[in-house]
């Protein structure tokens, strides 16, 4: 008989560094990437006329591409790395057998650990990146938090395709195709499902409603991707 959900969750957190992340190697890489992001944000901040340029309906790809595209891509690649060994020699079957119910909770936890770290790291680093505009004031808060849906969305897409196909390379391929098309079309190809809403200045160039709907759709899509990825098909 399978163990209870509580016991399974307890085992997951107790043995995380013995089963899923030996010696914390993946977390150390994540921390190193976030440290590099922080250092870059400190030494190369956004210009002080950033908001004025946005209100003038300029598309500031050179400024916002870092958090709109680069950081979410790093989070997605770390997601791929974290789950890569699951689909070698069908290891996912062994791991999935010990999770009760139709929903693979440890998979959610593993994904959430990476995404949470990137969200926190990105939020703090963005506060320094946009410090010439607003340094941790209310405006600075919104400037930092607006990128988080991108991180959640792209990493959830990576996990979903990987889990559904049982192939890490398929997850990388689909995610990179979406990423490249969205990046080089400057948000025009996927429109409402584009990650480039900030860099393409959807808020002022199109409308605030369009921009907010874009942010909401990315979060909803991420939730659907996560549900599809973690639903266990027996």
Question: Keyphrases for this structure?
Answer:
234 residues; mainly alpha; 12 helices; globular
Word description of this protein:
This protein is mainly alpha-helical. The protein has one domain (5-230). It is 70% helix and 0% strand. It contains twelve helices and no strands. The protein has helices spanning 5-14, 16-19, 25-43, 50-55, 61-83, 91-97, 105-129, 138-145, 148-165, 168-184, 202-205, 208-230. α3 packs antiparallel against α5. It starts with a helix and ends with a helix. Residues 1-6 have low confidence and may be disordered.
Query: What is the assembly state of the chains in this entry?
Result: single chain
| Helix content, binned percent | over 70%
Counting DSSP E segments of at least 2 residues, the number of strands comes to 0
The whole-angstrom Rg is: 19 Å
How many individual helices?
12
Beta content: under 5%
> What's the N-to-C terminus distance?
16 Å
What's the domain count?
1
**Average pLDDT, all residues:** 88
Shape: globular
Secondary-structure element order, as H and E? HHHHHHHHHHHH
Uncertain segments are 1-6
Return the structural class: mainly alpha
Keywords: Membrane, Transmembrane, Transmembrane helix
Transmembrane segments: 27-46, 66-87, 108-131, 151-181, 212-231
């Amino acid at each position: 008989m399978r163990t209870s959900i509580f016991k399974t969750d307890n085992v997951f957190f107790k043995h995380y560094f013995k089963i899923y992340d030996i010696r914390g190697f993946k977390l150390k890489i994540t921390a190193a990437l976030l440290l590099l992001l922080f250092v870059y944000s400190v030494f190369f901040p956004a210009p002080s006329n950033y908001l004025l340029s946005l209100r003038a309906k300029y598309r500031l790809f050179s400024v916002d591409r870092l958090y709109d595209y680069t950081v979410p891509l790093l989070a997605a690649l770390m997601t791929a790395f974290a789950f890569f060994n699951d689909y070698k020699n069908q290891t996912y079957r062994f791991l999935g057998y010990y999770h009760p119910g139709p929903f693979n909770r440890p998979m959610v936890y593993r994904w959430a650990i990476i995404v949470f770290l990137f969200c926190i790291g990105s939020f703090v680093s963005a506060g320094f990146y946009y410090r010439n505009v607003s340094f941790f004031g209310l405006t600075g808060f919104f400037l930092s938090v607006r990128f988080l849906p991108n991180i959640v969305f792209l990493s959830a897409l990576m996990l979903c395709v990987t889990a559904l196909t049982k192939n890490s390379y398929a997850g990388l391929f689909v995610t990179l195709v979406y990423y490249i098309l969205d990046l080089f079309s400057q948000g025009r190809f996927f429109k409402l499902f584009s990650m480039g809403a900030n860099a393409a200045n959807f808020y002022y160039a199109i409308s605030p409603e369009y921009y907010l709907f874009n942010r909401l759709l990315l979060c909803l899509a991420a939730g659907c991707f996560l549900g599809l990825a973690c639903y266990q098909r027996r």
